[in-house]
Amino acid sequence: MSLSQLVRLTAAAGLGAAAMSVVHLPAPAQARVAEPAAACLTPRTNDAAAAARGGATGIDHRGISPAEQRAIAARTERSLAARRGSSLVGSSAVVARTVPVHVHVMRSASGRGDVTPWQINQQITVLNKDFASVGFSFNLISTSRYKNNVWHKDHQSSAYRSLTRKGGANALNIWLVNSRWLGIATFPWDYARRGAADGIRVDSASLPGGSLSYYNEGRTATHETGHWLGLFHTFQGGCTSLNDQVEDTPAQATPTAGCPASRNSCPLPGSDPYHNYMDYSWDSCYFGFTQGQGARMARMWTAYR
Ligand SMILES: [Zn+2]
User: Which residues keep their CB under 5 angstroms from ion ligand 1?
Assistant: First the structure.
């Protein structure tokens, strides 16, 4: 596996109450090797367990090899070909795609991890703002609140997702949890295989007004929704021509931390796209998706959602 398998990462010095005070640290070396494509580590711990977490299921937060990237691309093209004739396919115009959203607040038994309706509405506003240029909008349909210490920590996630998930393939389910990850997403091409687990899991403290310093403007959900719509990280594949299979995002060797004044980690053309939502920069450093990413998400929407 390559460096591409990591993670929008922060790491805290310890657990407990101090864990909400975030220190930005580089990723541990073993995590760089083992971590999956659609995963984002939270500041709770930086131990090796984080790297291996969930890897056995193969459903989400898993690494994607170049060979698998090519296989997914071929499968996507077959799916699109089968749908040819649909007005969405082959159109160069930006078509409005409205995504129904179901939010699940996974609180602890004592109510930790709760968020306000204002925060949820602000999160939907952020999604609508961030995806407007690429033709997606988001419509909040339902909010459900649970009290369960196990679910709150994002344990037994396959079970709780299948019990609580709402809507069909086009419905974005957002589970707000407090695990060691900032966020985790499933990819659209996995929906047919495991639709019951489909959606994104996001740290509740990353919503607008949340307590995660540098990551509390709602951009974790933007990043994870990008995965949910079929985007890889901008550093997927590192300094290779395949990279993230999006032509207008320059190749990037490794994730960006913080918000640098400049960065160019590959000899290939173009500086690192660290203002892109699919890098690991701070929320305040994010600027947008490219048109190439928008076109990829539109194809994925048609093929799988
Ligand atoms: Zn990610």
Answer: 40
Q: Which residue has the tokens 């602000």?
A: 122
Instruction: Write out the two tokens for 154.
Output: 């994002």
Q: Does residue 1 or residue 250 have the better pLDDT?
A: 250
Distance between CA atoms of residues 279 and 130, nearest Å: 14
Distance 282 CA to ligand 1 centre (A): 13
Closest C-alpha among 229, 148, 163, 150 to residue 196: 163
pLDDT digits (tens, 9 = 90+) for 254-280: 898 899 999 999 999 999 999 999 999
Could you report the per-residue pLDDT of 39-75, keeping only the tens digit for each? 444 333 333 223 222 332 344 556 788 899 999 999 9
The pair of structure tokens assigned to 273 is 């796209």
**In this structure, how many other beta carbons lie within 10 angstroms of the beta carbon of residue 172?**
25
Q: Where are the domains of the chain?
A: 3-52, 66-232+280-304
Active-site residue 224, yes or no? yes
Query: Do 106 and 152 meet the contact criterion of CB atoms below 8 Å apart?
Result: yes
CATH architecture group of domain 66-232+280-304: 3-Layer(aba) Sandwich (3.40)
